[in-house]
Amino acid sequence: MSVLNNLYRDLAIDVGTVNTLIFIRGIGIVLNEPSIIARESSTGKVVAIGNDALTMHEKIHPGIITIRPLSNGAISDYEATKELIKGLINKTKTQFSIGIHRMVISMPSGITAVEKRAVRDFAKTVGAQKVYLVTDIMAAAIGIGLEINEPMGNMIVDIGGGTTEIAVISLGGVVSGESLKVGGTDMTSLILRYFRKAYNLVIGDSRAENIKTQIGSAYRLDKEMTMTVRGVNVESGLPSTREIDSVTIREIIAPPINQIIMAIKKSLEVLVIKPEISVDILDRGLFLVGGGALINGIDKKIKEETTLTVHISDDPQTIVIRGLGEILENLEKHRDIYTT
Asked: Which candidate, 42, 166, 171, 39, places its Cα nearest to that of 109?
């Protein structure tokens, strides 16, 4: 029986709007690839998944369509999501593994009961015998290393690609929180639209993402930067280049950042009726995770607006999957965190 058990793996999955990460029990994080698939437009056959599909998405490829099956952290295309996760899981299989025993999977705290059921059903359809659901925010807290069951208030802000999760937790539960359908992809989309509207220039998603990460910022820089951007002119159809500066990009991506900060302030206002927790937050500050934590100066911007100290963990993009992995490795210890 023990030999048979070894053929079944236990894994954790952080299925994100932009990227999906997989953790295998006893090994660690084994995969981090884009949440995208490519199909033949005529037959619907899946021809590429993850990194390979993203390469096709960025190039003109007649007869191929690409699909991002998750929107704002929720499943928008059930069948495409199933194909995506099956394909990514297969990339992690060894010749000796034949199935999945236990799967820990993340979900936004703001999803509905119907969406939660869809996540559970979906996990079963990709082969999991036992499914454990964990909210992104609780997984992040564990990934950070917080002692979540202590009578101590901790504030966590998880800025992902499609959603931003804001929560104050204490004694293993959420005291106040909010889930916004706003994230890094909104900032990237604003950059794409700006180049199209201002310069009649079409640029790729990856190029817009590079602009955001290289010269984008939430707070004024000590030394502002410029960048040469190449794309295709809509009117002429010919290649064209433009210079863009960090001040302009900061203005372009400001609306979603300001929306996130307003939601943080709202969560803090709720704590007025819980003064002891408010004191904890003032003393300990705010923990910022997710890809959005890498935006230059976002910690300074949040501190200026809220007066809170902002802590950014090493590699904030993997905090949630690391938390899910810790839960998977110690299911009994964390039994109050997940639902089945």
From this structure: 166
| CATH superfamily, with its number, for domain 146-182+258-314 | ATPase, nucleotide binding domain (3.30.420.40)
Element (H, E) at 6: helix 2-6
Q: Which string of DSSP letters, residue by residue, matches 209-255?
A: HHHHHHH-BSS--SS--EEEEEEEETTT-SEEEEEEEHHHHHHHHHH
Give CA torsion, residues 118, 124, 125, 127, to 10 deg: 150
What single-letter amino acid sits at 215?
I
Measured CA to CA, the distance from residue 75 to residue 78 in angstroms comes to 6
Give the span between the Cα atoms of 50 and 47, in whole angstroms: 11
Is the alpha carbon torsion for 276, 277, 278, 280 positive or negative? positive
Q: What is the pLDDT of residues 322-337, one digit of tens each?
A: 999 999 999 999 988 8
pLDDT tens track for 4-31? 455 788 999 999 999 999 999 999 999 9
In CATH terms, are 146-182+258-314 and 184-252 the same topology?
A: no
Pairwise CA distance, residues 138 & 318, whole Å:
14
Q: How far apart are CA 245 and CA 17, in angstroms?
A: 28
How are beta strands 154-159 and 70-71 bridged, if at all? unpaired
To the question of pTM greater than 0.70 for the whole model, the response is yes
Query: Under CATH, which number does the domain 2-140+319-329 receive?
Result: 3.30.420.40
Query: Could you tell me if 128 and 154 are in contact, meaning their C-beta atoms sit under 8 angstroms apart?
Result: no
141-187: pLDDT as tens digits: 999 999 888 888 999 999 999 999 999 998 888 888 888 999 999 99
The answer on pLDDT for 94 being more than 80 is no
First to last CA, the chain: 25
Of 293, 283, 299, nearest in space to 314 by CA = 293
The CATH number of 184-252, from 1.10.10.350, 3.90.1150.10, 3.90.640.10, 3.40.50.300, is 3.90.640.10
Helix (H) or strand (E) holding 38: strand 37-40
Taking the domains of the chain in order of start, what are their residue ranges? 2-140+319-329, 146-182+258-314, 184-252
